[in-house]
Amino acid sequence: MDIERVAVVGLGTMGAGIAEVLARAGLQVVGIEVDEAALGHGVAILDGSLARAVSRGRLTEAEQAAIRGRVTPVTGFREAATADLAIEVVPERLEIKHQIFAELDRVCSPSAILATNTSSLSVTAIAAGTRHPERVVGMHFFNPATVMRLVEVVSTVLTAPAAVGAVTGLARQLGKTPVQVADRAGFVANALLLPYLNHAVRLLETQYASREDIDAAATAGAGLPMGPLALLDLIGLDTCVSILQVLDAEFGGTRYRPAPLLRRLTDAGRTGRKSGQGFYHYTGNHGEPGTAEGGTGEDGAPAVPGLVTVIGSSDFDHIATELAAAGINITRNPAHDTELILVEATPAGPVLPAALAAGRPDQVVGLHTNPGPADAAPAELISTELTGAAARLAAEALAAKLGLRVLHAPDRPGFLVAALLYPHLADAVRMVQDGYAPAADVDTAMTLGCGYPRGPFALLDAIGPAVVAEVLETMHDGYGDPAFAVPLLLAEHAAAGLPFLPGESRP
Ligand code: 3HC
Question: Is residue 199 annotated as a catalytic residue, yes or no?
Answer without folding.
Answer: no
